[in-house]
Amino acid sequence: MKEKVAIQGIAGSFHHQVAREYFGNDVEVEECMSFQEVVANLLAGRSGKAVMAIENSIVGSILPNYALIDDNNLRITGEHYIPIQMNMMAVPGQKIEDIKKVYSHPMALLQCKEFFKNYPHIKLVEDEDTASVAKRISENGKKHVAALASRAAANLFDLEILAENVHTLKSNSTRFLVLQKNNEDLKENISDKASMKFILESRRGSLAEVLEIISDHKLDMSKIQSVPVGNTPWKYAFFVDVLFNMPGDFEEALALLMKKTDRLTVLGTYKNKWL
Ligand SMILES: O=C(O)C(=O)C[C@]1(C(=O)O)C=C[C@@H](O)C=C1
């Protein structure tokens, strides 16, 4: 049986594009309307893998997704980056001046905030997914509203692009993680990247010691993200991604990091896809 992949959004969404690029064009997807639903789908076994956006080059990390991965004990088995081009689209025959509201995924709206400063008459409204908004506008034939979504969504739902590439910086890219349940068998994969999470004592030099271990073992840290720890105000968990040439270097560093940190977990080792 073919493996199903849970995605946030529907066909025409950026998650859908990633699922097709990563798993092949004939991938079978489970369309979910929130990141929580993606995780629930995976945990219930309706899908074997999931794709989840984790950070965007313009607006930064999607912090709640770090918590979703960690709290639900998910495993990262891969990553994928895609360039993101945002387009404003509506039922054909209208001009930007006719549009009163633009609906899209919150991350998409954030990526295009600058553009809309020139159109103060347009109200930006958060919705579940870029493509599902395009679909709804098309099905209802509704005027005076637009979606922010991919060119694929405009083609799929016969909408007209009123403004293309409306994201704030030309080079806009989103990083996605491929996830699975932790207790499921891992196919042996070649890895040169690891994601881990740990908590540090609030003590002078505690983070510096961690960074020194990382550097001493020739690990290249590609990301560090602090996230507040649940019930304790101003206490942080650190999510760190490192790149390595020799898996042995990572194993050695890990053994030392275990001693210097609290509750260290390796969220996954996988192949670095950053171009
Ligand atoms: O709404 C979509 O099309 C999505 O795939 C979601 C999402 C995100 O969660 O960041 C994916 C990529 C873009 O950064 C904007 C939106």
From TrEMBL:
It comes from Salinimicrobium gaetbulicola. CDD domains: ACT_CM-PDT (cd04905), PBP2_Ct-PDT_like (cd13631). Keywords: Amino-acid biosynthesis, Aromatic amino acid biosynthesis, Lyase, Phenylalanine biosynthesis. It catalyses: prephenate + H(+) = 3-phenylpyruvate + CO2 + H2O. InterPro entries: ACT-like_dom_sf, ACT_dom, Preph_deHydtase. Pathway: Amino-acid biosynthesis; L-phenylalanine biosynthesis; phenylpyruvate from prephenate: step 1/1. Residues 195-271 form the ACT domain. This is prephenate dehydratase. Its EC number is 4.2.1.51. Residues 4-181 form the Prephenate dehydratase domain. It comes from the Bacteria.
